[in-house]
Amino acid sequence: GENVEQHPSTLSVQEGDSAVIKCTYSDSASNYFPWYKQELGKRPQLIIDIRSNVGEKKDQRIAVTLNKTAKHFSLHITETQPEDSAVYFCASFHSGTYKYIFGTGTRLKVLA
Amino acid sequence: DVKVTQSSRYLVKRTGEKVFLECVQDMDHENMFWYRQDPGLGLRLIYFSYDVKMKEKGDIPEGYSVSREKKERFSLILESASTNQTSMYLCASMGGHEQYFGPGTRLTVT
Predict the structure, then answer these.
(1) CA–CA separation, B75 vs A51, rounded Å?
(2) pLDDT tens digits, residue range B32-89?
(3) What whole-number distance in Å separates Cα of residue A8 and Cα of residue B98?
(4) What is the pLDDT of residue A39?
(5) How many whole angstroms separate alpha carbon A100 and alpha carbon A29?
(6) 3-state class of A81 per DSSP?
(7) Which of B1, B29, B37, B43 should one mutate to test binding to chain A, selecting the residue with the greatest count of A CBs within 10 A?
(8) Closest Cα in chain A, distance from residue B34 (Å)
(9) Residues with Cβ < 8 Å from B39, sequence gap 6 or more?
């Protein structure tokens, strides 16, 4: 079946450094790629997304890039802060089937 | 703000019991989803519904069923709970392409 691979599973960075999380999807018909952040004990929440007709999107310290040819997309967090510590999930979505497929998550720890 | 609620935060059931998990959303969304979340496995789709009385199997539907009698309510049913169904269950409702999650139900089957 279709899947989304996410790497790394855990990531530790020093405060102020950058963090990059990468995902690869298999369904070439996917047209929407969101990123969700789940803080400890809380529900996942959307932090940024990108559509298949866009190569890059930025929102303050976070950015997402998409390479449709390679079926890769990545989350970039710059100037990391302790409050960025959370589990991050990438996902692919196919608007024709309403199928949402999540990656397995990356636990990011920002060390003060 | 979209509000998605789940009937219980914590639930303990015995093996073989029938278990109902309920999810309610207040934004008139057509699409609703049930996931289970396990460490290292991420969010795995159990079932989703794109309209009242409509349902589609996700990736791991075995041992589960669902019910969508009203647009705002999507129920997950464990017909005969087993210990391998101990997990965190998350419901979501979708507006546009964004998923809005409920707080989750941590189910323990003993």
Answers:
(1) 31
(2) 999 999 988 999 999 999 999 999 999 999 999 999 999 999 999 999 999 999 999 9
(3) 24
(4) 97
(5) 12
(6) coil
(7) B43
(8) 11
(9) none
